[in-house]
């Protein structure tokens, strides 16, 4: 499966990237924006729960972002690695059992990333690598919707570095299979990913939405369906639910 879908984050009072690679992602976004005011605005959008379900695929992030009574289709793109670059990166990982164990435990060793950079492989985005495309018509690069989406992806990266590897071009299973071909013996299994959500602050009196359940769910499409189809249905359902909530139809 070359795409993964994640449920929308609910409203939270405050949340920031905590891992070094999540912070590096957010820094790349801030360096690209060159406007601290835009980043502050995007952070408010990200915390407000207006970003819909997120689809992650090689070189692409996508979500619908709700702004007042309008829904905007927002995409953030970044460069993927070539097959030659992937070969260099996988060789670096396979050289040290500790690197493999760390990845399977949802950790991205800093020395692994530095070693990859020495081989000409940049896993983390640099200035200008994150490009947003949104139908809001905003002149900022990125616009507030694209920046809010990118900030939330920093939260996803905190919990699961394989999201970053997918963005750079390799789905998890394909990457693990390539590692198995490079090492002798069993590779091991990945630690299950669990994302906790901070309790939200003052929510509107009607209706009160639950905010304590895990919010990152990998989409496993049923037979005959693609992941993108399932995520599209999730986005439609979320859009209709938000409209009903705003109108008060679900009050009761």
Counted up, domains total 2
State the distance separating the first and last CA atoms: 40 Å
Shape: elongated
Number of helices, counting only DSSP H or I runs of 4 residues or more: 9
Describe the biggest sheet?
A: 5 strands, antiparallel
Order of strands, widest sheet: 1-2-3-4-5
Category by helix and strand content: alpha+beta
Report the strand count. Answer: 5
Radius of gyration: 19 Å
The helical percent reads: 40-55%
Domain SWIM-type: 119-154
Keywords: Metal-binding, Zinc, Zinc-finger
GO molecular function, one term: zinc ion binding
InterPro entries: Znf_SWIM
Which features does this protein show?
single chain; 252 residues; alpha+beta; 2 domains; 5-stranded antiparallel β-sheet; 9 helices; 5 strands; 11% strand; elongated; disordered C terminus
Describe the protein's architecture and organization.
The protein is an alpha+beta fold and 252 residues long. The protein has 2 domains: 4-184, no CATH class; 214-251. The chain is built from 9 helices and 5 strands; from the N terminus they run E-H-H-E-E-E-H-H-H-E-H-H-H-H. It has helices at residues 20-33, 36-47, 83-95, 97-104, 110-118, 144-159, 162-167, 172-180, 227-247; strands at 4-6, 54-57, 60-67, 70-77, 131-134. A 5-stranded antiparallel sheet has the order 1-2-3-4-5, sandwiched between helices. Helix 1 packs antiparallel against helix 6 and helix 2 crosses helix 6 (144-159). The longest helix is centred in the C-terminal third of the chain and has 21 residues, at 227-247. It is elongated, with a radius of gyration of 19 Å. Mean pLDDT is 80; it is low at 196-218 and 243-252. One of its GO terms (molecular function) is zinc ion binding. Residues 119-154 form the SWIM-type domain. Keywords: Metal-binding, Zinc, Zinc-finger.
